């Protein structure tokens, strides 16, 4: 994923239920939640789905606030940045999600 890419219609992304999309061969974990001041689409967070430890699917993990916990061995990742909160220096890719004309777009985070 090297540029802004349409990944799905907003109507297909439920609130508070992780969704897995594949973009250019990369699995990305999307999570939509309502947030004050975020507009009718809510806030959409997006990070790489594969835990760098042993390949666990983060979309199958547990979400608490801004943190998702890998279901295999408990590594925790920040949904906003992809940074691992458990092991310093580890991370998954982070993505910026935007909504235009009812569609969700992803692009690499800075």
Molecular structure report:
There is one protein chain. The protein has 110 residues and is mainly β. The chain is 0% helix and 42% strand. The strands form two sheets. Strands 1-9-8-4-3-2 form a six-stranded antiparallel sheet, with no helix packed on it. The chain has a three-stranded antiparallel sheet with strand order 5-6-7, with no helix packed on it. A hairpin with a 2-residue loop joins β8 and β9. The mean pLDDT is 92.
| Extended strand count | 9
- Helix and strand content put the structural class at mainly beta
Global mean pLDDT: 92
Count up the helices: 0
Integer-rounded radius of gyration: 13 Å
Largest sheet: 6 strands, antiparallel
State which percent range the strand residues make up.
35-45%
How far apart are the termini?
A: 13 Å
Order of helices and strands: EEEEEEEEE
Helix content: under 10%
Low-pLDDT residue spans: none
Q: Strands of the biggest beta sheet: in what spatial order?
A: 1-9-8-4-3-2
Outline: globular
Features:
mainly beta; three-stranded antiparallel beta sheet; 110 residues; single chain
């Amino acid at each position: 994923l090297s540029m802004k890419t349409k990944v799905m219609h907003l109507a297909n992304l439920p609130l508070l239920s992780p969704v897995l999309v594949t973009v250019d061969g990369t699995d990305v974990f999307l999570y939509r939640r309502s947030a004050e001041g975020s507009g009718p689409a809510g806030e959409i967070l997006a990070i790489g789905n594969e835990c760098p430890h042993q390949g666990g699917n983060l979309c199958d993990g547990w979400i608490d606030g801004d943190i998702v916990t890998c279901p295999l061995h408990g590594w925790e990742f920040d949904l906003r940045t992809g940074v691992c909160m458990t092991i310093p220096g580890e991370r998954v890719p982070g993505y910026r999600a935007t909504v235009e004309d009812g569609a969700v777009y992803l692009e690499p985070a800075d």
